[in-house]
Write the structure tokens for this entry.
Amino acid sequence: YNAAVFTAKDDRGKVYFDSDTAVPGSVSTAADTHDALAQMTGEASTFYTVARMSCFHDPEAANSDVEAMGLKNTGGYIFYDGNNSQWLDPGKPAARQYLCEIAKEAAALGFDEILLADVGYPTEGQLDKIDYGEGEQAQNLLTFLEEMRTALEPYSVALSVEIPEAVVTGDQNIGPTLAELAPRVDRVYTETTPEKIKGLSEAVTAAGGTTDFVAELEAYSPEVSGSCLVHW
């Protein structure tokens, strides 16, 4: 292995490094976190390092400022998804800016790549009760990726997005299409199995040109060539 992925922010809204912009109460670190990250991303490190951050699935930030950042229901209250969790609203500039600031801090730590997960709206629960606002859902997410790319430009880091396999294959029509997503990022990550990698990689290349595909696998497989992310 020559790379390591660090969870900078999870889908509970917890931030796992010393952040100055995270909402109060969301930072969770240990006494040696700073030194461990410095060792991981420092010049002496031989690893390619990726900071993975859950984006709009964030109950911490959503509840901290429902009006400016939280995804609401049609009754004007915070929306609860099928797992009784809350989300940021991609249509709200403050929500997108919050995520950009967290990503900039992670990039400043020296990571080589920022991997964005949960770039979307809830897919479970009473979705017809979501107040989507006036903007188009897909465009809100594309605007977010463009804003994120601009925010990270000074740091010379790669920008990647994790999307469902069904979006790559064109079987899912929720949110932006692969043709819209791929040109806006450097890599597309998808949870899949070894036998599907070739077809998925070809689809990403066709959509994004120079955009790379990275398979996320449950276990290492010696038959896999190229980049892959193995879940431990």
